[in-house]
Design goal:
By secondary structure, the protein is α/β, with parallel strands linked by helices. It has 9 helices and 8 strands.
Length: about 325
C-alpha cells in the first residue's frame, strides 16, 4: 500500500506518443486510449466502499452484463463440448478441444482473472473453451467463489479443492496450472498452498501479467498508471475487499513473498512495458530465478494489461509463447 511519507520524484505533465516500434494494429489499439467499460478497470463510476456489499454486487452485475453484451454469441460458441463438474459449492468446467483424443492425459488447470470479483459463470465457461484451443489440451477451469459474499481464503480454498480433484484423475506431471492477472495471483498462491500441504506439484505454471504483490509496492503500479489502457486506476479497493483484513504480505495473497526455495515448478511469465502489473511480473520472475526455479520472462513492447486485446500480431506472438512452453513441458514430463 502506498506510503505518503516516501520520497517522490516529480515529473511534469507530458504527452506520450504511440510508439512506431509495434505493429500498425497495436498502434491503432493504443491510439484509441482507455478502452472503457467493460474492459476498463475500475469502472468509470467510483467503486463502492469496502463494507457496501450491495454496492459491490450491483457493480459486479453491471460489469458482467456489459461483458456478456459485448461478446454476445462468442461466449456461447463451443459450449456444447463443456462438461460441468460440481465440486460442492462451485463448478469446474471441463473442456476437451477438437482433435484431443480420449487417451491424451494432458490437462491444464485454468484460473480465471477479473480482479477477484469478475469473470465467473458464463464468462468462466467461455474462457475455458478459448484456453483449451490456446493450449491444445483438455482444460479444467475453476469457477471459484468470489467477493463480496466469499472473501479470502475462499477462492484459494476452491482452487485447492479443484487441484485435489484433478490429482485423483491425473498424475501431477500431466498437469499445468495457469492464470491471468488475479488468476495468475491465485495460480501462484495455489502452487504454494498445495506444496505446503504436501501435494505433488504440477509439471509447470503459466503466469500472465500476474498480481504477485498486493501491497502494490512495485514501481509500475505508479509509473504505468495512465499508460495502461485497461487497468486505469488503483486495484486497492478490490484487493482490500478480497483480502478481508488479512496481511497483504501473506504469501497466499502476495506469492512474491513466499519461500520459493521449497519448491515451485518451471514457470513462464508474460507482461508488457505498459502493463500496470509489469513490476509484479518481473519481481516474481526474479524471485523464482533467485530460488533456482527455471523461469522464462517475456515482456512485450508497449503492451498493457491484456496485451492488445486480441487485435494485433503481438497477441498471436503472446499466444505462441504460451503454446510452445506448455508443449515443451508436457513433452518433457512424458519422457520422464
Amino acid at each position: 500500500m502506498a506510503d505518503d511519507a516516501r520520497p517522490t520524484f516529480h515529473l511534469p505533465a507530458r504527452d506520450i506518443a504511440v510508439p512506431t516500434s509495434v505493429s500498425p494494429e497495436a498502434q491503432a489499439v493504443l491510439a484509441r486510449g482507455i478502452v472503457g467499460p467493460p474492459y476498463q478497470w475500475p469502472p468509470a463510476a467510483p467503486l463502492p466502499a469496502i463494507d457496501d456489499v450491495d454496492g459491490w454486487r450491483e457493480m459486479i452485475a453491471a460489469q458482467q452484463k456489459a461483458m456478456l453484451e459485448l461478446f454476445g454469441a462468442a461466449l456461447t460458441s463451443g459450449g456444447d463440448g463443456v462438461e460441468e463438474i460440481d465440486l460442492g459449492g462451485f463448478p469446474v468446467y471441463k473442456v476437451t478441444p477438437e482433435g484431443v483424443s480420449s487417451d491424451d492425459r494432458r490437462v491444464y488447470l485454468d484460473i480465471h482473472g477479473g480482479s477477484w470479483t469478475l469473470g465467473g459463470g458464463q464468462m468462466c465457461r467461455a474462457v475455458a473453451a478459448a484456453t483449451a484451443a490456446l493450449v491444445g489440451a483438455r482444460v479444467w477451469s475453476v469457477d471459484y467463489r468470489m467477493p463480496p459474499d466469499h472473501r479470502f481464503p475462499v477462492a484459494l480454498d476452491d482452487c485447492l479443492v479443484a487441484y485435489r480433484a484433478l490429482l485423483q484423475e491425473h498424475r501431477p506431471e500431466e498437469i499445468i496450472i495457469g492464470g491471468v492477472s488475479s488468476g495468475g495471483n491465485l495460480a501462484a498462491a495455489l502452487i504454494l498452498r498445495a506444496r505446503d500441504e504436501g501435494l505433488p506439484l504440477p509439471a509447470a505454471a503459466m503466469l500472465s501479467t500476474p498480481a504477485t504483490d498486493l501491497t502494490m509496492s512495485g514501481d509500475t503500479w505508479q509509473t504505468n498508471l495512465g499508460l495502461d489502457i485497461v487497468l486505469t486506476a488503483s486495484l486497492m479497493p478490490a484487493i482490500l475487499l478480497y483480502a478481508d483484513g488479512h496481511d497483504l504480505r501473506d504469501p497466499y495473497l502476495s506469492p512474491v513473498f513466499g519461500d520459493l526455495t521449497k519448491g515451485f515448478p518451471p514457470t513462464i511469465l508474460l507482461s508488457g512495458t505498459r502493463d500496470l502489473l509489469l513490476s509484479d511480473t518481473i519481481r516474481m520472475h526474479r524471485a523464482l530465478r533467485a530460488a533456482d526455479v527455471p523461469a522464462e520472462l517475456h515482456v512485450f513492447e508497449a503492451a498493457g494489461h491484456g496485451v492488445f486485446l486480441g487485435q494485433a500480431p503481438e497477441d498471436r506472438d503472446h499466444a505462441r509463447e504460451i503454446r510452445r512452453f506448455v508443449d515443451e513441458h508436457w513433452a518433457a514430463a512424458s519422457r520422464s
